[in-house]
Design goal:
By secondary structure, this protein is mainly alpha-helical. It is built from 12 helices and 2 strands; from the N terminus they run ααβαααβααααααα. The N and C termini lie far apart (53 Å).
């Protein structure tokens, strides 16, 4: 292990921290503007300002942690052989997260002010994604940076970053579940009262004034309305298995063919084993989003159950929409992974990138396993 530190390079976590600062500022400005235009509520303005300060402080701590926890290269021999020269295959701090955060800020602001600003934000986001792909593609995994700070000393910087990110994601989805369950327990729904709530059976009588229609009442109405959610659950669980298979074969020092003929056809060699399993994960994730749109189309156009219908509808669309957005982000990453796999870019040295993505994808899977019974069955 080399004793040198990359003092001129801030780790990935630092870049993400700066991005969170920009997102915090953007969120504060956006909510303040929304409050001033719609509600004129002083408390909302104050809350938005305080929230933006707290989010900005959280992001600033990410920058500080990234700068303090300076990184070292995992391979100590590289300095001995090449001195301190810059290696183009090493992982370095990237400004792509900052560009993506700035593009997202313009994208959100454009929703309120101008479609031109919205399109500019989308353009910047895609430029940032392309730049990230360009930076990461030559990574051979032999120069993975390590964190020196405690309690993460010795761990790969990117692994530390993804775990901290997932912890923050637990807070996000935890807020969805806690708020929904808190309100759900106080509502009178089809679990408590039998009535003609969705207009299917007039003989059941009129619902009480405090009756609340929740999404699960439409979803569980019959087999065909429940089927998309059930298929989505199976698809995501299966996709977690295929991404593990991709990691298994990418990190293998030597390839051993499967025993069954079907699996041999599916994975004839190591390159195609990695590629095909990543493609399978991509297709299963795409299936999830397609069925999600079909489901939303039924609720919105056939049942007139929109995000503005009620508080129950609002939290349903926000929670499932946030999860769907996470799936979409995963699909963007998978497109890059599949492209790299097609060109034989994965091996035992850099397979940790698939591992880190797998952590994210498993979290998305687990979040859906909780969302499905809470919002679709309860």
């Amino acid at each position: 292990m080399s004793d040198h530190t990359n003092s001129n390079e801030s780790p990935w976590m630092g870049s993400v921290g700066i991005g969170i600062v920009l997102l915090g500022i953007a969120a504060g400005l956006f909510v303040v503007h929304l409050g001033a235009e719609v509600a004129h509520i002083h408390a909302l303005n104050v809350g938005a300002l305080v929230g933006s300060i707290l989010i900005g402080f959280y992001g600033l701590m990410g920058v500080v942690a990234g700068l303090v926890n300076s990184s070292v290269e995992a391979s100590g021999d590289s300095h001995d052989e090449h001195g301190d020269s810059h290696d183009e295959h090493a992982h370095h701090g990237s400004f792509s997260p900052i560009l993506m955060a700035f593009g997202l800020m313009l994208f959100l602001y454009g929703f309120v002010e101008s479609y031109l600003v919205l399109m500019l934000g989308i353009l910047i986001i895609f430029i940032a994604i392309f730049n990230w792909w360009r930076e990461d593609y030559p990574n051979d995994g032999k120069h993975e940076m390590k964190s020196l700070g405690q309690p993460y000393g010795g761990l790969d910087v990117r692994k530390v970053g993804i775990w901290i990110f997932l912890m923050s994601e637990c807070m996000v989805f935890g807020s969805f579940f806690s708020s929904y369950l808190r309100m759900r327990l106080g509502w009178t729904t089809h679990w408590d009262e039998t009535c003609n709530s969705i207009g299917e059976d007039p003989s059941l009588g009129v619902c009480s004034d405090n009756y609340v229609i929740v999404a699960s009442e439409y979803v569980t109405h019959n087999f065909w309305t429940l089927l998309p959610g059930a298929i989505n659950t199976f698809a995501l669980i299966l996709s977690s298995y295929t991404v593990v298979l991709a990691l298994k074969y990418a990190s293998a020092s030597s390839y051993v063919k499967p025993k069954t003929k079907l699996m041999q056809m599916w994975m004839p060699d190591q390159r195609r084993a990695v590629r095909n399993n990543l493609v399978a994960t991509l297709l299963l994730g795409t299936l999830f989003l397609v069925l999600k749109l079909v489901e939303w189309d039924h609720l919105i156009n056939d049942q007139d159950f929109t995000i503005k219908t009620s508080l129950a509808a609002s939290i349903f669309y926000v929670s499932t929409g946030a999860h769907g957005f996470h799936v979409f982000v995963g699909l963007i990453i998978l497109c890059f992974f599949c492209f790299k796999a097609q060109n034989g870019g994965w091996d035992e040295d850099n397979a940790q990138s698939i591992e880190y993505f797998g952590l994210y994808w498993h979290f998305v899977d687990l979040a859906w396993v909780a969302i499905f019974p809470a919002f679709y069955l309860y």
